[in-house]
């Protein structure tokens, strides 16, 4: 869609230049005439080019063409060389001889300049020449969002890309391309400035110029075994040759606030619900008055009014500040260019004591000397994060009768263990006392070398070395935060890890044109080495001063304590050979083929090498002669098709194929700790590559000179021999699940991107939208039963299962049908033999559906109740501008998925020992018989509170991710202050959400592929409001 | 140009062909593989230490996942609201547990880990050339003892279990069918007989806590007793030698950590205060059993009135087992909010252990008193009442009680009552009630508050749902 954008701008520009040129050509010419020439200048299709410049080489003499592309020039001499140029076309030299006076010159389109060029991996390509599915996101579209991370810039911008940003400051984003295609890691490969394997959360959004997303097999195949999850190519900003020095500044600041509040009971509500639950169980005969805890017993002396009424969410959530400062300096001379950028980003978390800061520095440049081009690119990033040490699920359910602070307690934080009330760890105390901080440093140095052997033959080499350091420090002093949460001694743990990644590639590139045939070929090698070291050490007790006397705790100051250490090392290597051929006939028919062979040290000798081929083709029907008549309406139309096989190994650890022995098991002989060794691993020498077979059929079209433009793709992706932890490893086997190749998943669907741009006077508008449908299915699984259970949910076992013929990670749960409203409803709920299906039920208890009809509710009644995977994902953008004002809105949404609200499950049982949701006030009672909330009991004989589809909710949402209003100062004002651009804006993120979902946030980062759609409410989603300035001078 | 071409070609060839396979051969530089482990006696012994470590868990996990299901479901100890207020614990003691309940699955998970490590030793030790035949036999015997110990605990607790005697070597061997109780018992008898034959009767002090031939015989006797093979049980139990009942004056020392190594204990689970902060090799039974008013206890269970009523006056075991309102413990007078509360003090060493949430008293799995009472039971069932009476009177005498002269079912009940009084809080009572088929009766008789929920199916836990979900050879236990 961006190439059209360029056409559009270019079109206007051309008119403007023509106008200026004509004005100038009306000026009288005083030069003496010896040789008068004239002619027309037209483009390849014969259309005249107004405003083209005709310059006599070596002089200041020249002219421009008129509205009809006609020119006339009186030369001082009979021989001369004319330099004919016009923006968007290749400049031409024409020799003037005395005999010739008429010159009809055809300018050739400068394809490089006219057409958008996209990065495709080990090369670039004109966007219009793509035969595979590649999406581009330009920073100028996406950086309006006050994006905390590059991932946020991608969300909803293009079809086929699902993005969920981790909500805690500094948390990793979750990105998947075209559906869930593996049981293991589904994160795409990130390639930053040509170097694979980068971490995008370390980048500053202000540094990014564009994203290219390689979605189908043919596009991604050049990355072979790294590419099965799709590839995101990130190009950072660079300077341009012959560009005067320019400075870009981007500053913004704002606030963030948790977007939702989970309605928990206050003190009185808690008391009433608990009292009701005990009374109901006593009425059932399940308990006696004596079983009531003291706080509910008359005469115990308990008085609720002596206790606090704490809203723990209020106490632990806050308004956080966010600020960002970026400065970029760029420029270039004839043979070199540079870009230097610095960024500081500071985000306070919406949970107390959390936050993240990031400092970035990048220097990117390019030097040319003759045929040699050298491009160094140096990047340093430093990130510090204060992690949340509150267990949020427990925070929500902390008892309201506990006061936040209590001077009578040793640590100064409140807790209770009286009258039968035993509270858990004080969340505010947890956050204040327990410190968990990490820092990360990354240094990346890349060097690109390019040597032009001839116009058609180039050698290119790239090497990138990245070194990363991670440091985590976890400390707490001696504390008591509850009767069951106390530490007798201070504890300090430090983790250090460092890893290096060396990437290098060397390619030979050949391009030539033979008449209408255009051929490109590339062949090369790629190498990779990863080295990792880590060290963990912790110490308990032994502090020189028990309270550290205000000193920093360290291993020195705790030297008398008990020390434990661990650490190790890993190396991964990879080597690849690759080649690519492009063929273009007459700019109508395009063909591309690639093949890449990868070897990886993660595999045993049996299956170390994998070969990944792809082929794609396209037909630019709009360039056919017969299409000429339709061009007024359809200015561009291209059909594409591709097929490719990609590999995947990311699920594997460095030594997954080996069964390693671990230490760290302890037992006691003779009252002395004995350190044991043991292994629960299973060796697998036959591990092989995962393979993803992908098909893509697409159409790109532009209508009415690209006012309306669109892209359509149908995709199909079969991932097979999937690497995963053998999920059918029963506990009785005693081993950790071994990694095996197992199963096939297919994803298919369509992607549609549509846009419309227009203007009415000074009012300009554009609307773009994209949607992706995803039909995910497990095609085949290793075991006969064909079932893969997901992870345990809140100690209730697996609730998600992946079965053949159904989507991955489908919910299988007990199914409910409201609550029994009367005894007769219970009596009439009978099985085939006439026996009561729920003999323990009382009115107000949950009705469980006897799915298999055997008259008993047991684990055989667990059934399919929905999918956590959206079937439709979409994004909508609107940009409006009027003179200096601009307004943009960006909506994003998903449809067709379910979410398991674990917070609801955990907070809706009065016998849990924790606080409960205030909605239980409205539980079923004989006086409130229409309630669908089961009655409150302590002895849950009907298992009302067990995990069931009662806690499964519709996960669809439509969210206004971003709205921004900006004002750009007019140039008349700017000239006075010597700025070339200045824009002010206000911005709001996540301002409005339309959803039926009751939990914190329907945007969820899944625990793993097999356990999707589970909301633990671990860190609340937040709304952000910022104001900023963008300036250039 | 030609030079460049040549350079390019040779560069390409060198990288792509020559260096690849050695470049790609990477093995862990610092961790041994399972094949590299079996190289010395010390390495095998370290493997053995890990094999013991799954008998128990540390910290809160022990009382929630192991102690609670094994002790809070019978007539001698009743759960209190420190247990019942937490739904996942309340369901276990309230007999409305489901197949997906976490508490039994943790036992299942831990014990099968122990079995896995035992099987590694049993397979690999015989192939270690560096060991003498004697060392091999002893080590295999120890591993087979542990394998039997883990399986027996599973058998006592679950409706159906999987007998695992071999470590899966390929993914296709991971899922095994369930085994009949007879088949499991058959294997356990073989394992324990082998262990009894090849283990030392006693380890030197540095290895206190490791399985002995006496422990093997005692457990062999126990599993035979559970099967009602009275004569065989007696034969095995009679082979236990070198152990005796400690004197009545030393009795409390069995349970307060002051005398962990003694002639009565045959097999125990060990904890230690050494490197306590770093390794956390402690449990929390002290704080778990105390009520909130006693140094912030968690009020999880109490000794039942039924138990208290069974005590005869003058029984020295009362003071070693339970503290009543107004009695002295650890030098202080103990006053409860609820004067009727009876605090269990088995494995509670001090008031300090409540305050700090840490107890390091070893947990006794098998002691000579159990052997004597099992002998009494076997003798009684074999009709040798006089011999049975003399055994039970050994227990009574040590407890400072007059000898009994009971006979017939009164003698049987006396043996059972002495078992309860003697072994309360040591993980026996519920399983005894089940094998005597009087669990429901006794729960009701003792007034356990959830007795009416108890059905026949609650004698055993269902196979954990997670196991069934991952092992298609098993079917869910009906009714859960």
From TrEMBL, chain B:
PROSITE patterns: PROKAR_LIPOPROTEIN
Gene3D superfamilies: 1.25.40.390
Limits of the RagB/SusD domain: 346-479
Localization (cell): Cell outer membrane
Domain of life: Bacteria
Signal peptide per UniProt: 1-24
SusD-like N-terminal domain sequence ranges: 96-225
Entry keyword set: Cell outer membrane, Membrane, Signal
SUPFAM superfamilies noted in UniProt: TPR-like (SSF48452)
InterPro entries xref list: SusD-like_N, SusD_RagB_dom, TPR-like_helical_dom_sf
Family indicated by similarity: Belongs to the SusD family.
Protein name: RagB/SusD family nutrient uptake outer membrane protein
Organism: Algivirga pacifica
